[in-house]
Design goal:
mainly alpha, elongated
C-alpha cells in the first residue's frame, strides 16, 4: 500500500505542475501530459489492487 500512496502523491504533484504550466504558457502539451499521467496512474492502481486481491485470494486457498 505504501507503493500505491507514493505513486498517487507523485501523480498528483505532476498533474498539478502540468496544470500550472498550462495556465502560464497555454500550451496544450501540458494537458496531454497530465491526461497521460492520470490514465497511467489509474491503470497502475487497478493492477496493484488486482494483485493485492489475488494475493489475498491465494492465501485463503
Amino acid at each position: 500500500m505504501l507503493l500505491l500512496r507514493l505513486v498517487g502523491i507523485l501523480a498528483l504533484v505532476s498533474i498539478g505542475v502540468s496544470f500550472a504550466l498550462y495556465v502560464v504558457y497555454r500550451d496544450r502539451r501540458y494537458l496531454r501530459f497530465a491526461w497521460r499521467v492520470l490514465v497511467a496512474t489509474l491503470l497502475l492502481a487497478g493492477l496493484l489492487m488486482l494483485f493485492y486481491a489475488a494475493e489475498r485470494f491465494l492465501v485463503v486457498l
